[in-house]
Amino acid sequence: MIDVQRYARITGILFLLSIVAGFFGEFYVPSTIVVSGDAAATAKNVADFNSMFRFGFAMYLVEAVCDIALAWILYVLLRPVRKDLALLAAFFGLVSTAVFAGAELFFFAPTFILGNAALLEAFSPDQVRSLGLLSFRLYGYGAGIFMVFYGIATLIRGYLIYRSDYLPRALGILLMIAGMGFVIRNFVLVMAPAYASDAFVFPMFLAAVAMTLWLLTKGIDKAKWEAVRSAAAET
Questions:
Q1: CA-based Rg of the chain, rounded to a whole angstrom?
Q2: What percentage of the chain carries pLDDT values higher than 90?
Q3: What's residue 132's pLDDT?
């Protein structure tokens, strides 16, 4: 027996922390530090905003912890609908976090590349700065590739919410659209990078905000959740 309403509130808090930390660590800091096509300016920003750069990485760690916790708690909340699909979504969610963690290593690597001239003395200063910028670009591609896993997890969760009866179907539809946006952007990034617009990502932001607000203010219809859970236990 679990207090499903408390789980719903915790889920909302985790979503909120993930949104705030993810925005700062994945969008604000990289857009401030990285100057596309200008290795020298990027290297200067890493040195000038080093504390913010490191704090941005720390915010990613917060986001990753939240995502791992969300993989489990969303499984608990959605397993009454279909346990096998809820577990599959949790697996895809955990894989997406692991893949993105690998990409984040390339984001953090320039602190070593640009800060250890003695270890890279065989390279000229311009070459070292170019390596730093290349590392950021690899991070960008790695982060883009992870989207397919998170997109599939979101798509499955959206379907389960749509079928749940204890959460609004509109949230499920929004999550399915958001998940498809991530999956499509992933393949566009691989097949036709010039067309990998951030517009594919926007539905995910809307879905995360909608889920956060609903879970924090309304939560889950406990009576319907118990009914679905009891029905699943009898089959």
A1: 20
A2: 48
A3: 86
Distances (CA, A) of 38 to 50, 125, 140, 174: 18, 14, 16, 38
- Helix H or strand E encompassing 109: none
List the one residue out of 101, 100, 98, 78 whose CA is nearest residue 89.
78
Q: Which helix (H) or strand (E) is 61 found in, with range?
A: helix 50-78
Quote the domain boundaries for residue 151: 4-234
134 contacts: CB under 8 Å, gap ≥ 6: none
- Write a three-state SS string for 136-175: HHHHHHHHHHHHHHHHHHHHHHHHHHHHHCCCCHHHHHHH
Average pLDDT for 72-94: 95
pLDDT digits (tens, 9 = 90+) for 148-170: 999 999 999 999 999 998 999 99
Contact 85, 160 (CB under 8 A): yes
Q: What is the pLDDT of residue 118?
A: 65
